[in-house]
Specification:
4 strands, 72% helix, 3 helices, alpha+beta, four-stranded antiparallel β-sheet
């Protein structure tokens, strides 16, 4: 009769090499592997071109500011032009009423009107230049927006690929856990108290 080794039963598995392996150890290895897979699945998404995307977002913000400044500049130049046109209209309306004035005074008024016409022409050029600058800033803003959106679409694509991979890893970990709970290895020998062996 064999000596009693333990008041509780101990379960062993015979491997092909004749060595005995604790079945619980095998299960523990599977569980640890599943845990590692789940930990991997929980990692945060990282976009490899995030710094480039950040740079393009800053460029777009700068383009927005430049466009707003150009827009404000154009509005200012247009307001100045409107004021000059109003001054000219008032000057022209006054001219018929000043026919009784001396020739010298009429000459001063005519000089003022000519100077006003020159200022109006110069201001028209400023308005045209402001319109040109605004259009350039508009085009630059649209380009910055296209570049930012293109990279954002790429980021969304990478994120979806990452999400699918995380789902695959998570599903594999869950499958491994289910396997670990239901595993029943063959050739299991149980040693009961009293030394009797049973399969």
């Amino acid at each position: 009769m064999r000596p009693m080794e333990s008041p509780q039963s101990v379960t062993f598995q015979e491997t092909h090499g004749g060595q005995r392996v604790d079945e619980r150890l095998c299960t523990c290895v599977v569980l640890n592997g599943a845990k590692n897979l789940l930990t991997s699945a929980m990692r945060r998404f990282e976009f490899s071109l995030q710094k480039v995307l950040d740079y393009r977002q800053r460029r777009e913000e700068q383009a927005i500011s430049a466009f707003a400044e150009a827009q404000a500049k154009l509005m200012h130049e247009q307001a100045v032009l409107r004021k000059l046109l109003i001054d000219r209209e008032e000057c022209l309306r006054r001219s018929p009423r000043h026919q009784h004035l001396e020739v010298e005074m009429l000459g001063v008024e005519q000089t003022y009107l000519s100077a006003l016409e020159g200022r109006i022409e110069a201001q028209r050029e400023r308005v045209a230049e402001a319109e040109k600058v605004l259009e350039e800033k508009r085009q630059a803003l649209m380009q910055a927006q296209r570049e930012r959106k293109a990279l954002e679409r790429l980021r969304e694509k990478h994120h979806e690929q990452w999400r699918q991979e995380m789902l695959r890893i998570e599903q594999k970990a869950l499958d491994d856990l289910a396997t670990a709970r239901s595993v029943r290895l063959p050739s299991v020998l149980t040693l009961h108290a009293g030394g009797e062996e049973h399969e």
